[in-house]
Design a protein that fits this description.
Distance between the termini: 80 Å
CATH architecture: Roll
Number of helices: 3
Structural class: alpha+beta
Strand content: 25-35%
Helix content: 25-40%
Number of strands: 5
Order of helices and strands: HEEEEEHH
Largest sheet: 5 strands, antiparallel
CATH topology: SH3 type barrels
CATH superfamily: Hemimethylated DNA-binding domain
Number of domains: 1
Length: 111
């Protein structure tokens, strides 16, 4: 095995996060603690620490962070689209309830 492929294998095995994974940046202010970043690329080691390129959905630029500065974001049951809709419009009523009422002939109109 040549040196290039040895380095590539060593670097990829030291990254504990993967591309596409959502993470939080440690040490952010209380207001920014809930900002999630998506890993867009794994980068070579910086010293002994793996690096990642990350991006927040509200920023147009990417950041480079080392592995010790990030932690996994909590996994949510809501889809990303649901989250985006809630962030844009606030919590919306459950559509399935309205559809059930509609199909059973119950009207939401008051007399």
């Amino acid at each position: 095995m040549n040196n290039v492929s040895q380095n590539k294998n060593r670097n990829s095995s030291t990254h504990i996060f993967s591309v596409g994974q959502n993470v939080l940046i440690k040490g952010k202010t209380a207001a920014a603690e809930t900002e999630t970043y998506r890993i867009t690329a794994t980068l070579p080691l910086r010293g002994n620490s793996p690096q990642y390129r990350v991006q927040n959905q509200f920023e147009h630029h990417e950041r480079v962070v080392t592995q010790e500065l990030i932690e996994p974001a909590a996994v949510s049951q809501a889809s990303e689209l649901d989250t985006l809709v809630e962030q844009t419009f606030g919590k919306l009523p459950d559509v399935s309830i309205a559809l059930k009422k509609r199909s059973s002939g119950v009207s939401g109109a008051r007399k």
